[in-house]
Specification:
alpha+beta; 4-stranded antiparallel β-sheet; 1 helix; 49% strand
């Protein structure tokens, strides 16, 4: 389970399954978000990348292996997340772009 601070609107990474010896095992991987949305996908390699974008803030991400088996462990690698800047920072960046454009 991953908990994010407010402001995260995009998450991506390699979601897959491993056994106790760290071997990759093909499996169904479920990715669940706190707002009720989810993704269920068959993953067979560590290179399968999945990305998610939301219109509401992502605060919690849960990864599970299906069917549940004591020998399969959900694994996440190369986790990326995207944040939206605070309104004040976004306004300042917009103003700076506008001023630089006007000078030209």
């Amino acid at each position: 389970m991953f908990n994010f601070e407010p402001g995260v609107f995009a998450v991506g990474g390699n979601f897959f399954s491993r056994d106790a010896s760290f071997n990759t095992i093909p499996a169904l991987i479920g990715v669940f978000f706190e707002n009720g949305t989810s993704s269920l996908q068959y993953v067979s390699t560590v290179n399968d990348f999945s990305g998610f974008i939301s219109s509401v803030a992502i605060t919690k991400l849960i990864v599970e292996v299906f069917p549940f088996d004591a020998g399969h462990y959900p694994t996440v690698d190369n986790l990326y997340f995207g944040v939206v800047p605070a309104p004040g920072a976004a306004a300042l960046l917009s103003l700076a772009a506008l001023v630089s454009r006007r000078r030209r």
